[in-house]
Design brief:
The protein has two domains: 157 residues, Leucine Aminopeptidase, subunit E, domain 1 (3-Layer(aba) Sandwich); 317 residues, Aminopeptidase (3-Layer(aba) Sandwich). It is built from 13 helices and 18 strands. The strands form three sheets. Strands 7, 8, 9, 10, 11, 14, 15, 16 and 18 form a nine-stranded mixed beta sheet that branches. The radius of gyration is 24 Å and the shape is elongated. The structure holds ligand BES, manganese (II) ion and zinc ion.
Length: 499
């Protein structure tokens, strides 16, 4: 899908979107007069008969002319309820409806979706980004149907001439972030058989070449030499060796900056290990590298946007399998930090590999460390599937992430992380236990565990993206991975101010 801008007062596309608030008269829409008389009549009759009232999400598609064109009446609901999140959904719905109706090119007025306190650039970014998200589908493993997959070729955003420059910036940024987000979905949607730790590392290398950041991959022998006993322990039961991938981006003149470090959980398949996951709980566990995918994709967007800073991305990658030589409950793993992890539960593997990655991050003397992980089912219990969890001992960082989550649409909400919780993850014979003695608050005790390996950082936050790992009904997004974390990490980098 190609996104472009137009300042024309008449839409030339074959699909014309009239986005209308509830009970707004269609005649008042600036594009109404440009329509042929026949369609105008149909629309007026429709609206008079209350066939279309502009309720949120309501859609009517009216064909006209030859070759056929279509008017799409899109309901926005009550003006007083209109907000950023709804504008995101509407942008996506335009794409979904266009594809459903085989409309190959579509036009929308940017002003139709305007909400309070939004500037032109960020509104254009929002529309472009969400149009990209909605255009995504994962069909690599399917036979191409007769006539091919539905395809929206062109999305034209109409703006006022005075808004053109700002909108162009927004479209560029939104396209980069939206397509990066989709790249993360591709990685996460790929089955475990085709996304082993080595293949995940290769994907990072490929992205680095395309986007312009350096990538170094440590293989098993290097990981052994380094002493990453956590990563080695988790991967022990799998025939696929672990990898540890280091990505580095620095804008010219920023090579010596204290970097932002992003760490992504790269469990390419999580069977639970010897504490095997029950029946359907294992189904989506090829997406347990979604944190890694988010970090790789964020690196790509940051590099393409040429943000004026330095960013390191770290990916510990392993497959968590059960086998004769798999790691066992009761095992003591010696981590890179020197601390031992007492394995209580082999299904709490994410935190074990992240422990080594967090210690590895220390050598960069980072300004900020953010790890992203599909860490706990408990985060889903706490928040449902509409927000990831933010956990940080740093209140200001937590709040900043919360605000940026709202702005970027990559929703996340804070949970507490106090020293008191550290009590719950003390080991009996080892230094730290990988699962809590307490049955409750699993998202928090997971973070408390990670915190043991993040004590040297002034600013560290953990994003538990298990809740938002997959898309849900009503989001106008394809089934499968949501690419959670990408927009939030990029928003953080874009807003980061070294001072
Ligand atoms: N990858 C899972 C968490 C998960 C569950 C992500 C569902 C996405 C959807 C993680 O490795 C895990 O198994 N966590 C355990 C931790 C427990 C054993 C302490 C969990 O949440 O049950
Ligand atoms: Mn697990
Ligand atoms: Zn896992």
């Amino acid at each position: 899908m190609h996104l472009s801008l137009s300042t024309s007062l008449r839409p030339a596309a074959r699909g014309i979107v009239l986005a209308l608030f509830q009970d707004a008269a269609p005649v008042k829409h600036p594009w109404f007069t440009a329509l042929p008389a026949g369609v105008k009549q149909t629309i007026l009759a429709f609206s008079k008969a209350k066939e279309f009232t502009g309720k949120i999400g309501e859609v009517h598609v009216i064909p006209f002319g030859s070759p056929v064109r279509r008017v799409v009446l899109l309901g926005l609901g009550e003006p007083k309820d209109w907000n950023r999140r709804k504008a995101m959904l509407a942008s996506r719905q335009v794409v979904v409806v266009a594809k459903q109706h085989k409309i190959t090119d579509v036009a929308l007025r940017l002003d139709d979706l305007k909400f309070t306190n939004v500037d032109t650039e960020s509104l254009a970014q929002l529309v472009a980004e969400n149009a990209q998200l909605a255009d995504y589908s994962f069909v690599r493993y399917r036979k191409v149907p007769k006539g091919g997959w539905p395809k929206l070729t062109s999305f034209v955003i109409h703006v006022r001439p005075s808004d053109r420059a700002a909108a162009a910036k927004g479209v560029r940024v939104g396209t980069i972030i939206g397509t990066a987000n989709n790249a993360a979905r591709d990685l996460a949607n790929t089955p475990g058989s085709d996304m082993t730790p080595t293949l995940l590392a290769n994907a990072a290398v490929a992205e680095g070449k395309k986007a312009g950041f350096t990538v170094t991959v440590m293989k098993k022998d290097a990981i052994e030499r380094e002493g990453m006993g956590g990563l080695l322990g988790v991967s022990q039961g799998s025939p696929h060796p672990p990898t540890f991938t280091i990505m580095e981006y620095a804008a010219p003149g920023h090579a010596k900056d204290k970097p932002l470090v992003f760490v992504g959980k790269g469990v390419t398949f999580d069977s639970g290990g010897l504490n095997v996951k029950p029946d359907t709980a294992m189904y989506e566990m090829h997406m347990d590298m979604s944190g890694a995918a988010a970090v790789i994709a964020a690196m790509r967007a940051i590099a393409l946007l040429q943000l004026p800073l330095r960013v390191i991305g770290l990916i510990p990658a392993a497959e968590n399998m059960s086998a004769g030589d798999a790691y066992r409950p009761g095992d003591q793993l010696r981590t890179l930090s020197g601390k031992t992890i007492e394995v209580m539960h082999t299904d709490a593997e994410g935190r074990v590999i992240l422990a080594d990655a967090l210690t590895y991050a220390e050598r960069y003397k980072p300004a900020v460390v953010i790890d992203v992980a599909t860490l706990t089912g408990a985060a889903m219990v706490a928040l449902g599937q509409r927000a990831a969890a933010i956990l940080s001992p740093n209140e200001a960082l937590s709040q900043q992430l919360h605000t940026l989550a709202e702005e970027s649409g990559d929703l996340a909400w804070p949970l507490p992380l106090w020293e008191e919780y550290e009590e719950d993850i003390k080991g009996t014979f080892g230094d730290v236990a990988n699962s809590s003695k307490v049955r409750y608050g699993g998202a928090i005790t997971g973070a408390a565990f990670l915190w043991q390996f993040a004590k040297k950082f002034k600013r560290w936050a953990h994003l538990d993206i298990a809740p938002t790992m997959t898309t849900i009904e009503g989001q106008y997004l394809a089934k499968g991975s949501a690419g959670a974390g990408v927009r939030l990490l990029v928003a953080f980098a874009r807003n980061y101010d070294a001072a």
